[in-house]
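Worked example 4.2. Below are the chains of a multi-component assembly; read each line carefully before continuing.
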Amino acid sequence: MSTNIAATADIAGFIGACLVDSESGLMLASEGGGKLDMEAAAALNTQVVKAKLQAMELLGMADQIEDILITMGKQLHMIRPLEKAPGVFLYVALDKKAANLGMARMQVKRIESGLSI
Amino acid sequence: MKLFQRLGLGGDKKPAYEEPEEDQGGFGPPGGVLWTTPGDVLSDRPKSAPPVQPTMAPALPEADHAAPAPGVPSSHSDALQRTGLMSTDIAGTAFIAGFVGSCLVDSDSGLLLAAEGDGRIDMEAAAALYTQVVKAEHEVIEVLQLEDHIEDILITMHSQLHFIRPLEKSPSVFLYVALDKKSANLGMARMQVTKIESNLKM
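Applying the procedure described above to all two chains together yields the following structure tokens:
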């Protein structure tokens, strides 16, 4: 088992990151955060993932989520279910001004592939 | 009468149409001058009949009267769009590489406002279901007190890419676009979706 997500802190614009069990909405690991309540973020983003999974199921899409990128006015949020354990997702919040969506996406992908549950 | 003029049924036909009305008026009361020339009345009939036809024909286009382009189905939303108050034209999404389907959704109700695509995705259902995704994301922003708004949500799957983009001018309405991942270009698609969204008006 490896839940080390410390490398997310190296992503440009890093605010906070966490590893979440989407069955329970509970946090498995967290990094950074500061003003951002990662515990709440974990629970709330679980709702986003569940809504998406339900949409896929009811629309009859036999597919898997690779990632969900949420662009806001000031922040970028990434949700990436682990390939090996789709019930668990990595959540990363970045400052939009400093972040590079393409770069961040690659880094998150690399970090995710190193995780195992 | 204005209707006929707008439809291009010239004014020269209008008096031709009104004439028979006078003839019929004269034809009604038995006796009088018309009875002495029944042949004239009968011969007048075929002459006056054709002008009556155009009055019947425009009766159908009357519904389309507000729609300048014939053949285009007329509806209330079309009328709103022509007035410039509303624009829900998302046809441009069909030109995005890898296009599968798209729709415009009112996230307050989860109802569809416009849809494009060949039916591979049940847009009515997608509208309702993705409203849940948007609502969940709004809750994240609200509860975490991010004091921010959603610009877009990109969902990458193994075979498809999905975009959700709330309209800047009316954030409760969002544009949803589904693309085939193999032929889509994430960066290009995002720019195109942004451009189409900026032209929509509610």
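Take a moment to check your reading of the output against the notes. The first strand of chain B starts at residue 99 and ends at 106. Confidence is low (pLDDT under 50) at residues 1-74 of chain B.
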